[in-house]
Each structure stands twice: as C-alpha cells, then as structure tokens.
Design brief:
Chains A, B: This is CHAD domain-containing protein. 2 copies of one chain form a homodimer. Chain A has one domain: CHAD domain (Alpha solenoid). Chain A has 13 helices and no strands. Chains A and B meet through α1, α5, α6, α7 and α13 of A and α1, α5, α6, α7 and α13 of B.
Chain lengths: 378, 378
C-alpha cells in the first residue's frame, strides 16, 4: 500500500494504521435504506417475475439499440445517433452479462454461459472505438495541462518566460501529433471491427438469442416460483462478498511512479481492474433486486440511485474507471515513446506524459480508498 | 492549493476546507514546554551574555572548522575530514548570519549587514559542491527506483518480463550516465570555486571579522544590559511571525505535474524556499534564546531539541529541504533533457525522471502541510 493510500485511510491515526483496504459494507444495512419500504415488496415477488422481468427489459433495450444503430449507421450526419445507439447496446450487453453471471445457478447454465460469453465479446468489440477516442482526449488534455504556462505567484501569466526559453512547447506539440496519429488509426480500425462484428453471423446468432430473451428467460424451474428474497438476494450477497474480498486482496502497491521505466509499473493494475469489474457486477445485481435505474441517455444515466450502497458503487465506479483509463493512457504514451526515430523533445514529453498518467493512476487509487467503504460503514 | 494539500489538511471535513495553510503556533505555549523551567533563567540574563555568548560560540566553531579544513584539504586521504570541516563551517556561518539578521536592532547594524552578507556568500559558495553531489545521488536513486522491475502481485519478480521486453533499462542507464557526467563536472567546478574562495582575500577579511567576533560582539550598548526577555524574545517572536505569514501566503499551487513541460512549473517554488529560509531563521533564533543545540558532527546534529516548537521546526525543515532538493533535481533532469543529440530513449527516461521529481516536490508540500502546524497547535 502506498503512503498516499494509507494517509487517505487514516489521516489522523497515529501508529494504528490498517494494513489493508477495509471490508465492504453489508449489502443491506438495517434502517439506513430509504428504499427499504419498497424493496421487500419486490423481493417477495417470485424469482421469475423479478429476474426474467429484468432480463426482458435489458434485452428489449439491446434490441432497440440495435435498431437505432441500423438506422443511424453509415452516414456522417447521424454519427452521434449511431454512437449513442452503440452506447445503449454496450450498456444492455454488460448488464445482461453481469446478471447471467451473478444469477447463473437460477438459469439454464449452459445457455447462460454461452450467451454470456458472446455478449462479453460483443461489448468488448463495441467498446474499443469509444475507448481509443477517450484515451486520445485524455492524453491531449493532459499534454495541454502539462504544457500550459503557469501563472506566477502574483497571477501573472508566464507567457513571456516561455517565449524567452522558446522550445518547451515543441515536444508537447509533436507528442500530441504523434498520439493523435496513432490513436486515430487505432480508433478507425476499431470502428471497422465494430461494424464488421455487427454484420457478422456470430452477432446475428447472439441477436437471435437476445430476441428470445426479450420475451422468455430460460429460468431453472425449481427456483422460478420461490420469492426473490430466497433466491436472488443470496446470490447478490455472494457477488458483493466477492467484491469486498477483492478489495481486501488489493496489492499493497509500490510508491507512485516506481518502476515507470521498466514497463512493469502496471503489474498491480489488474487487481484494481478486477475490483472495478466486481463493483459493477454488484451494482447490476442490486439493480435486479431493487428495480432498474432510469435509462435516460447520456453518461448521467447511472446516477438514479435508490439506495446508498448503489450510489456508493456508482461513485467508486467512477474512480475505478478513471484508474483504468489512466493506466491505459499511460501505456499508450509509453508505446508512443517507443516509436522509432522520434525527436528527443518528443520522447521527453511522452516520458513526462507517461509519468503524469501513472500519477493519475495513484490519484484514482487514493480517491477510491477515500470513498470506500462509504462514510456510514467505516 | 492542490487537492493533495487540501486532503492532507482536512481529510474528513466535508465542504468546510480551509483555503490556506494554517497559521503557525505561538512561539511560546503556556505550560506545554518541558524547557519552561530552564528558559526563564536564561531569558533573565543580560542580552550581552545571551546574544554575545551565542555568537562567540558559533564564531569559535567556524574557526575550528576553518582550521580543520586547512589541515585536511588537498589530500584524497583526508577528503572526508575536509568535507566534514566544510559542513561545520557552513553550519556556523548560517547560524551567525541568521542571528545577525534576527537581532539586527541590538547590534552595530552597519557591521552586522556587512558581515552577514559576506557569510551568506561564503555559505553559498561552500554549499554548492555538496549540493551537486546530493543532487546526483537523488537522481540516480530515483532512476534506480523507476527502472527496478516491479514484483508481481504474488511477489514474484518481473525480471523475466523485463528480459523479454528488452529495452526499457537502456534509456535509464544512458540518462544516469548523462546526469553523472553533467553533475560531476558541476561538482568539480564547485569544489575548485570553494577552494578558491577559501584562499581569497575576501575570505580572509571575513575570517578576521569572525576572529574578533569569537571574543567580542559589537552590541548596541543601550540594550546590552537589559534582560534577554525584553530584547531578544520580541525579535525572535517577530521572525516567527514572519515565518507564519510566509506560510499563510504560500501560493495555492497548481495540480501536481501541471506545467511540467513549459519550464514554468517551478514558479511557485520560490514561496516555499522562502518559507524554508524563515523556518531556519526561527529555529536559529530559538537556539539563541534557549541555548545552543549539541554540535555533534553528522546530519543528526540538529535533533537535540529541548522544546516542541524547535523539534517541529527541525521536522518541517526536513520536508522543506526535501522540497528544495526535489525542485532542483527536477530542474537538473529537465536541463539534461535539453542536451543536444541525445537518444530518444534517454530523453524519455529524463522526462519520466523530471515528472518523478516534480511529484516529489508535491509530496514534500503535502508532508509539510501534514506536519505544520504541530498537532497540539491546530
């Protein structure tokens, strides 16, 4: 664990600092839940209604995304609509995937594993284009921040200093151009790959499965009529426990920026990515139990939380996504730095950028440790 | 102010974060000082005895350092003794300087300003060699940390990964060699400059003044017989207040690593260096009032604190020195990065190193804000 993480967790403690991230709070906290008066009703319903109902809704959403994409794709004028449709597709695919995984024992497991794997493939293929675009955006923003002249102690801009020293901006500009070239190429390829995937027989086979799912979920008949509280809740608790255990098992990372020059500085990232995955799984499981969130379009769609735990998972999810994005941006800067025959100033700027993004990785870990577990559960 | 600094200062506060560093504690805290039973006796003494006594001791120390240097200099076998003698010289010069400045109204001001300026020059000339050596050491240590392979999540070393990817270490090794060349050259020049200074007429003139000071300090006769509590203490309080005000005036810095590519990222460093200077001045003033510290050789010599405030100043002094060292090391890495015709991998490693040292600058600021004001005075 880094000093930063320790400090964030027990800033005023003297000597008695915890040695690992604290355990997650229990899934359900007595009396503290504003949705407590709603949930029992839902959990008293038969498993079939709750689980199949949720899967039907998500499947319908996925099919709507697919139709919207078919209508918008292929024209520059409707690129924004196509991108939004892809977002909806990914959103539903991730939720169905997570639901199939968490509640696997209540479903036809063969079917569930097969469809889950295909949806994971689909969500990954569809995510790439957006990821490259966001990565480029993140790196150019960072370069801008790194190469903006500082205001002086009296607020005066340092423009004149920069003008005098002349060259510092050159490396940043060249590094930006190089990254733009490399990531735009990657993005274009990802776009084509996504279009190919959506036109493939493999995709049509998944779409057929989803069309069936929209009206009929292959539930295990023995559990289908039991109340959700006895079937869904224990499995949601299990997912939540796996999340808590993954948080506990987070490696005690090295100092910020250590190993940055070896290509091994991201060795501990995987543990954090796993935590991110499980935080999402837990959040989706809660959505099944507590009713789906508003599906308004846009990045704010996930914020309609009805319970504090769901809200906390949304919040730490942002930190964990920022962690993932920064780690991948650092890797992209590092890869660009290995481009043959670049100017030393370009390489220098990419080195600073790489370190800056690893610093962001640390900051995201710190932010996670500051917000998890939520204040009431410490 | 950076997020880190804010967080360190009010980690659990919600919304009500202070907007600037807190004020320094009062110089004397009622009842909290273990030396309180000693100090009044000393402060009841006449100004002459306390102030002149302190100056005599420091002047004697400086002359001993000078003799020790004369005996040890010029031979490789006694280089360690010569370095230790220079350390003693600098230590005494800094303290005499600070004392002359803080208690200027009680001294012959013309003499005090002249000798103070000459001692400042001497301390600066003598410090350079050590500073370049320490800077190289800091940068090579950082490069080592940055280029050491990370242990895996299971503790397994990443040596094999590095062996497979091959090249990451090359840039770090070349960067290290370049820095070693540049800073060793600077260090050698500083060594010659220090020897030249110690053989100069200018130095002999200061040495003569110090020889006189060792037996007789030019005190203002009107104050010389008054008790130290009425003359020295108010001036020490004034220095302490200037320190507190400088802490309050610390610029609210940009985010960590912002502006790193412009050569203007150190624009706010000067305010911190000023705080470091005033923390030292305050500490030296306390030493005059409370009796000198043990002068045992070595870097631990300053730790024989008799009061909590002195101990706190020693502690934050370390953070502020680390701040200064990291800022100058970052500048050295940046300067090395502008060496013409270096390989891109070397430039890349220097960029990472530069960012790493700016990260250290931020960490030192955070550490300062965590330890100042001392816990009892918050």
């Amino acid at each position: 664990m880094t000093d930063q993480r320790r400090a964030a967790r027990a800033p005023a403690a003297t000597g008695q600092r915890p040695t690992g991230p604290p355990a997650a709070p229990p899934l359900q906290r007595a009396g503290a839940d504003p949705a407590a008066d709603v949930r029992p009703t839902r959990e008293a319903q038969p498993t079939r209604e709750v689980l199949a109902g949720y899967l039907h809704e998500r499947a319908g959403e996925l099919l709507r995304g697919l139709r919207a994409h078919d209508e918008a794709a292929g024209s520059a004028e409707t690129a924004a609509e196509a991108a939004e449709a892809v977002r909806l597709l990914r959103r539903s695919a991730r939720r169905i995937c997570g639901t199939l995984q968490t509640f696997r024992p209540l479903l036809d497991t063969g079917w569930s594993d097969r469809v889950g794997a295909e949806l994971r493939w689909l969500a990954e293929v569809l995510a790439k284009e957006h990821e490259y675009a966001a990565r480029l955006d993140r790196l150019l923003t960072a370069l801008h921040r790194l190469s903006a002249p500082a205001a002086g102690p009296d607020g005066e801009s340092a423009g004149s200093v920069e003008a005098r020293t002349g060259r510092p901006g050159v490396g940043a500009a060249k590094a930006g151009a190089l990254l733009e070239r490399q990531l735009t190429l990657a993005r274009t390829r990802a776009h084509s790959a996504a279009l190919r995937a959506l036109g493939s027989g493999r995709f049509h086979a998944v779409a057929d499965e989803i069309a069936v799912l929209a009206s009929e979920a292959p539930l295990d008949e023995q559990s289908a009529d039991r109340p959700a509280a006895l079937t869904l809740r224990p499995l949601a608790e299990l997912t939540h426990r796996r999340f808590a255990e993954a948080v506990d098992a987070l490696p005690h990372g090295p100092e910020a920026l250590a190993h940055t020059l070896t290509g091994t500085e991201g060795r501990h990232d995987a543990g954090w990515h796993h935590v991110r995955h499980l935080a999402r799984q837990t959040r989706y499981a809660l959505e099944v139990l507590e009713g789906p969130r508003p599906t308004a379009p846009g990045p704010g769609a996930d914020t309609g939380s009805t319970t504090p735990l769901h809200a906390a998972l949304v919040l730490v999810g942002r930190h964990l996504t920022r962690h993932r994005d920064a780690a991948e941006a650092a890797a992209a800067a590092s890869a660009a730095g290995r481009t043959p025959r670049i100017a030393p100033a370009t390489a220098y700027a990419l080195g600073v950028l790489h370190a800056d993004q690893r610093h962001e990785v640390e900051a995201a870990r710190l932010a996670f440790c500051r917000t998890w577990p939520p204040a009431g559960d410490r």
